[in-house]
């Protein structure tokens, strides 16, 4: 099984961005964690990050066409983008929405997600460990 892990805007700045909210781990640490968990689960994982919405839409279309399961942290687009929702809606395999912070403890504008009601599952508030939990869930491993 191959899983695409798709990260949206500003997540490339993890470690430098609001460490009180997002912790001190970097995007490279996130990739390393996903690679380690993938080896353990014997699955293939590819982690991508973009600040461009059209690039994200292209990756979601690719996942739909290749029937790949997806872990997505759409970051700010979670709260703003009907286009990202529509692209996620086309996915034929499970997709899991992940947020590093607990968006429900934060500003009111972060408490609505355009993805949660169509996601297979949602993981929030566990830092980058949320990605490991999502991969385990997709692989059916406890
Ligand atoms: C985030 C939460 C979003 O509200 C925010 O815009 C992000 C990161 C998270 O992982 O906690 O960029 O998705």
From TrEMBL:
The record marks 17 as: Transition state stabilizer. CDD domains: DHQase_II. It catalyses: 3-dehydroquinate = 3-dehydroshikimate + H2O. Keywords: Amino-acid biosynthesis, Aromatic amino acid biosynthesis, Lyase. One of its GO terms (biological process) is amino acid biosynthetic process. One of its GO terms (molecular function) is 3-dehydroquinate dehydratase activity. Its EC number is 4.2.1.10. This is 3-dehydroquinate dehydratase. It comes from Halosaccharopolyspora lacisalsi.
